């Protein structure tokens, strides 16, 4: 069996590409609608070392868009569910699971603790997202950051650009504004959609886990964001960027 499951991948990226992916170490922060799919795509491509981070459990409202969310998994920890799935895809995967909501001060500690070849920011709350971006920029760690997938339904409008080239995304606008105070205005790639948010789908919350509001979501948009984020990483690692 061994590498046979990667036979189709090797035809496309050659043995050298397979080796590059197997030797790479990638961090995925957030295992919701975007991060769960991104982590799976990375594992199926053959990334050899991964650290996945999420402190949340599956809620019934996650079922419409998140890979580990099923009626049978409600109340279970996302990091364990996703971790088990990744290990079933690649039993030789060197996987570290961090079952926690990373406080902003923990971001620096984590990024500095290990040498990551790439970081995927799949956090949907502004404050921890900003902290992770700053930690990556300060340490010159490669980063792809997911912007707002909520309130959108047109897959053709999703793209990857540098943060300073994002538009029609309220989350990206907030991110740019906060980063400007840190004298960061470019230097990392973002997955975003140029489609205008459906304002009628907005709902306010109690502010739990740094989140004060959220937009309605459809099954395929967060998954596409995760696909684009994973593609950005895989193509960079294999030299196809």
TrEMBL record:
The residue ranges of the THIF-type NAD/FAD binding fold domain are 12-240
* Coiled-coil residue windows: none
Signal peptide per UniProt: none
Name of the featured protein:
Thiamine biosynthesis protein ThiF
User: Which GO BP terms apply?
Assistant: cyclic threonylcarbamoyladenosine biosynthetic process
Instruction: List, alphabetically, the InterPro entries matched.
Output: ThiF/MoeB/HesA (IPR045886), ThiF_NAD_FAD-bd (IPR000594), Ubiquitin-activating_enz (IPR035985)
Highest taxon in the source lineage? Bacteria
Keyword annotations of the record: Membrane, Transmembrane, Transmembrane helix
Q: What is the lineage of its organism?
A: Bacteria, Pseudomonadati, Bacteroidota, Flavobacteriia, Flavobacteriales
Q: Which GO terms describe its molecular function?
A: tRNA threonylcarbamoyladenosine dehydratase; ubiquitin-like modifier activating enzyme activity
Residues spanning the membrane? 213-231
The protein's organism comes out as Epilithonimonas lactis
């Amino acid at each position: 069996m061994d590498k046979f499951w990667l036979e189709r991948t090797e035809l496309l990226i050659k043995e050298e590409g397979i080796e590059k992916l197997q030797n790479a170490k990638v961090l995925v922060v957030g295992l919701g609608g975007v991060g769960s799919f991104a982590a799976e795509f990375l594992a199926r491509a053959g990334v050899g070392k991964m650290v996945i981070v999420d402190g949340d459990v599956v809620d019934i409202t996650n079922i419409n868009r998140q890979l580990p969310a099923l009626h049978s998994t409600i109340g279970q920890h996302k990091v364990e569910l996703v971790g088990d799935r990744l290990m079933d895809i690649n039993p030789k995967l060197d996987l570290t699971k961090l079952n926690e909501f990373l406080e902003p001060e923990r971001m620096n500690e984590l990024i500095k603790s290990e040498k990551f070849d790439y970081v995927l920011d799949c956090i949907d709350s502004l404050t921890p997202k900003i902290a992770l971006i700053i930690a990556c920029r300060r340490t010159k760690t490669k980063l792809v950051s997911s912007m707002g997938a909520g309130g959108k339904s047109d897959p053709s409008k999703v793209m990857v650009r540098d943060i300073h080239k994002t538009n029609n995304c309220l989350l990206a606008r907030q991110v740019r504004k906060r980063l400007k105070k840190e004298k960061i205005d470019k230097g990392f790639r973002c997955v975003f959609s140029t489609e205008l948010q459906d304002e009628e789908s907005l709902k306010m919350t109690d502010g739990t886990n740094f989140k004060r509001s959220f937009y309605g979501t459809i099954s395929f948009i967060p998954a596409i964001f995760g696909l684009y984020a994973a593609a950005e990483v895989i193509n960079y690692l294999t030299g196809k960027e």
